[in-house]
Design brief:
Length: 169
């Protein structure tokens, strides 16, 4: 590098990064939606007048009411909350200005997609066929809790994908 190039490099060091506030806020909004889904609203159409909150479904599956499918038992027992924590932590880390931000942005997006896919698997509370209704019945009966969880995980994944803010010197 010649003296002019070196002098210009000191004047304009190139792009730098700062904490991705927009991505972090979107991820936080997604986390809030999932928390509301997991604590306050129904997941299924009320059949017998009882609630179908996340904890109600967990209790029913834990007590062995019906023939529950494996993903539903795991999701409503502990996997849903674990996915929420993992997606939000990775999304926030993906918004930090670091060399790992690019990899964390991809990881956060993939984790969010996995959480969405597992949410879709989990609403099938019983195996289809002889032991329970068809999957489409569960989709038809899904209520606000399911949709808030899916939307919240989607927002958290978008927040992760945004990453740190890039700015010029």
């Amino acid at each position: 590098m010649g003296p002019i190039t070196t002098r210009m490099a000191r004047i304009d060091p190139g792009p730098s990064q700062s904490f991705g506030m927009v991505g972090a806020l979107i991820a936080a909004l997604g986390a809030i939606l999932v928390i509301v889904a997991f604590t306050a609203v129904d997941w299924f159409k009320k059949g017998s007048g009882s609630h179908s909150h996340f904890s109600d479904i967990h209790r029913a599956l834990d007590q062995g009411k019906g023939f529950a499918a494996g993903p539903a038992k795991l999701y409503f027992a502990w996997l849903g909350w674990t996915l929420l924590v993992a997606v939000v932590i990775v999304a926030l880390l993906a918004n930090l200005p670091s060399p790992a931000a690019a990899a964390l942005r991809i990881l956060g997006s993939l984790l969010a997609l996995a959480a969405i896919a597992l949410s879709f698997l989990a609403i099938s509370l019983a195996k289809s066929g002889l032991h329970g209704p068809a999957y489409t019945t569960y989709l038809k009966d899904a209520r606000l809790g399911f949709y808030l969880a899916v939307g919240g995980f989607l927002l958290a994944g978008i927040g992760a994908a945004i990453g740190p803010m890039r700015r010029r010197g």
